[in-house]
Design brief:
Blueprint lengths: L3 E5 L7 E4 L6 E2 H7 L5 E5 L6 E3 L1 E3 L2 E3 L9 E5 L15 H9 L9 E4 L7 H8 L5 E8 L6 E9 L2 H8 L3 E3 L2 E6 L14 E5 L7 H8 L5 E5 L8 E5 L2 H7 L2 E5 L2 E7 L4 H6 L33
The structure holds one DNA strand of 10 nucleotides.
Main location: nucleus
Subcellular location: Nucleus
Keywords: mRNA processing, mRNA splicing, Nucleus, Repeat, RNA-binding, Transcription, Transcription regulation
DNA sequence: GTTGAGCGTT
C-alpha cells in the first residue's frame, strides 16, 4: 500500500507529503510534479550525520530497507544548474512555469483587471506610459452598449516597462487594479509582503551572492544593495509565503551570518532597531526594479541560457 | 441608470 514520504526543497524547510506507489517506490514523475526540474533525492543519515542519495532506477526511487521512515528527504536538482532551456530533464510544466516569469525576455500583452467602469483607453494608456513606452492599450467593452467590462490589455515596448508594471500595485483613477500575465494564475502580490530586509550584511556578500542564495527558495525579482554600502540589503521574492518563511531567521551566506526580517517593520521592531536615524527602513529606498530584470544585462542569479 | 471576478468579436 502507498505510504507518504516527507520531502522538502531544503533541509530546514517545511516538508510536503508525497505518496509512494503500491510497491513502496517513489516515482520520479511524482517528485517532479511537486518539484519541477528535480532529478534526485537525498537524506541525512541520523546515525552518521552524513548525507545519502536515494537509489533511482528506471524512474523509481527505492528506499534503503524498503522503508522510508519518518526522515525528511531533500530534493536534488541537476548539479549543472545552468541547465539548457530544452533540457530533457525539465518537464513541460516546469518549462511553462519558467517561461511565464524568469525566462521571459520579450514583452507580451498584459491583462489589466479591475479598471474603473469609466476608464477610457486614452487615460489608461497615459497612466501606463509612466512605466515605459506603451504599444497597446485596450479596454474590453460590451459590443452592444459600449460599456467597459472593467478589464483590458496593455503591452509595453520593452521588458523594462513590463517588469516595472508587474512588480507593483496600481491605482487607476481611484481604484486598485491588477496587472498580470494573461492566463497565469499567478497574481503579483503586494511588494511589501515579498520584500526581505537582510541585515548584518558585510561587503563580502555581493548582490549576486544574495540573488544566488535566495534563488534556492524562490524566484528572486529584485536585489538592492545601497551604495555606498550600509550593512543591509533588500531582496524581493515572487511569493509572499516563501518570503514569510525566511523572515526572522539567520542565514549563512558565504560564511556570513545575516539576519532576514520583513522589509516593512512592525511598529515594535521600529522601536527595537531602526528608530535612531529617523525614518524606517522601508522608506530608505524606492520600490521598483533595480537589477536582474530580464531586459538588459541579465543580473546574477542561477543559470540563464 | 445597477456590478467587481475574470482572460481578448480584430
Amino acid at each position: 500500500m502507498a505510504q507518504y514520504i516527507q520531502i522538502a526543497e531544503e533541509e530546514n524547510e517545511e516538508p510536503i507529503e508525497v505518496p509512494t506507489e503500491d510497491d513502496g517506490t517513489l516515482l520520479l514523475s511524482t517528485l517532479c510534479a511537486q518539484f519541477p526540474g528535480s532529478s534526485g533525492l537525498k537524506y541525512r543519515n541520523p546515525e552518521t550525520g552524513t548525507v545519502r542519495g536515494v537509489r533511482l532506477l528506471d524512474g523509481r526511487f527505492h528506499s534503503s530497507e524498503g522503508l522510508w521512515g519518518n526522515l525528511v528527504y531533500v530534493v536534488v536538482f541537476p548539479k549543472d544548474n545552468k541547465r539548457k532551456m530544452d533540457d530533457g530533464l525539465e518537464n513541460s510544466l516546469a518549462k511553462t512555469k519558467r517561461l511565464e516569469s524568469k525566462y521571459r525576455t520579450t514583452p507580451s500583452d498584459l491583462i489589466v483587471l479591475g479598471l474603473p467602469w469609466k476608464s477610457n483607453e486614452e487615460d489608461t494608456k497615459q497612466y501606463f506610459e509612466q512605466f515605459g513606452e506603451v504599444v497597446l492599450c485596450q479596454i474590453k467593452k460590451d459590443f452592444k452598449t459600449g460599456q467597459s467590462k472593467g478589464y483590458g490589455f496593455v503591452r509595453f515596448a520593452d521588458m523594462e516597462g513590463q517588469n516595472k508594471v508587474l512588480s507593483q500595485r496600481h491605482c487607476i483613477e481611484g481604484r486598485w487594479c491588477e496587472v498580470r500575465i494573461p492566463n497565469s494564475r499567478e497574481p503579483n502580490y503586494p511588494i511589501a509582503l515579498r520584500k526581505l530586509f537582510v541585515g548584518r550584511l558585510t561587503e563580502d556578500v555581493s548582490a549576486e551572492d544574495l540573488r544566488t542564495y535566495f534563488s534556492k527558495f524562490d524566484e528572486v525579482t529584485d536585489v538592492f544593495v545601497p551604495k555606498p554600502f550600509r550593512g543591509f540589503a533588500f531582496v524581493t521574492m515572487v511569493h509572499p509565503e516563501v518570503a514569510a518563511k525566511l523572515i526572522d531567521e539567520d542565514h549563512i551566506i558565504k560564511g556570513i551570518s545575516v539576519h532576514v526580517s520583513s522589509a516593512e517593520p512592525k511598529q515594535k521592531d521600529k522601536e527595537r532597531f531602526g528608530g535612531g536615524g529617523g525614518r524606517g527602513r522601508f522608506d530608505d529606498h524606492r520600490g521598483g526594479w533595480h537589477d536582474g530584470h530580464q531586459g538588459g544585462g541579465m543580473g546574477g542569479g542561477q543559470g540563464q541560457n
